[in-house]
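To: structure subgroup
Subject: Chain for Friday's discussion

All,

I'm putting the inputs and outputs inline so they're searchable in the archive.
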Amino acid sequence: MGRYIHNLISGGEGLNLDFKYCISDPQKIARTLSAFSNTAGGKLLIGVRDNGSLAGVRSDEEYYMIDAAARLHCDPEVTIRTRNHTVNGKNILEVEVPKSTIIPVKARDEHGRWKAYFRQNDQNFMADRVILQVWRRSVKSRGLLLRFEETENLLLNHLRSEGRITVEEFRNLTGINARRAEKILSDFILCGLITYEASERGIFYRLSTEFGSGR
C-alpha cells in the first residue's frame, strides 16, 4: 500500500493529481473538485506537502471537510471515493474525483457565488463565459455550420500571425460586442479550429495544432 502512494507521489502533481497538506476550508477544496470534475477527473492526496513529503492527517476531520466540499459547496454534488493509507506511520487520505457526466460542476466561493473551474497541468483556473458556453453546447448533438465572414477571417488571420488572442483583444480587433465575440470563439472551439489555455494573466485562444499553432 505504501508503494502505491509513493508511486503516485513520484509522478508529481499534474492534470490528474493534486497534493494537499491539509484541508482547512471546504470552499477552497471545492475548486479542485470542480476542476477535476470538469476536465478529466483526478485524485487528491491529503496529507502530502507540495514537495511530495508526507505530513499525515487526522482522517476523520479531513474526511468531514472533503465530504462537505463535495456535497455542500459543489453544484451538482460531486461523488467522491475515499481511501485511507498508512505510509511510514502517517495517515494519507486518497480522494478520487471522477469526471462528471454533468458539466459544468460549479464551486461556491466565500461570497456565495457559484463559479466553474477547469484543470490545466497542475493548476485550477476559473472558466470564462466562452468555456461555459462550450460546455453547455457540447452536450447537444446537433451539427454546427460556420459562416466565414469578415469577422471570422480577421480572427483566423490574427491567430496565424500573432499566435493567440483574448476575448477583449478580439472585440477590439473587430468592434463586435461581447456576446458575439464569445459565440464565435465557442463556435471555433466546438469545431476544433481553436483551443484555449490559461495563465495567471487570463485565458487565451489559439489555433489548434491541426490547423497550425501560430507562433
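Points worth raising on Friday:
Residues 59-72 form the longest helix (14 residues).
The mean pLDDT is 92.

D.
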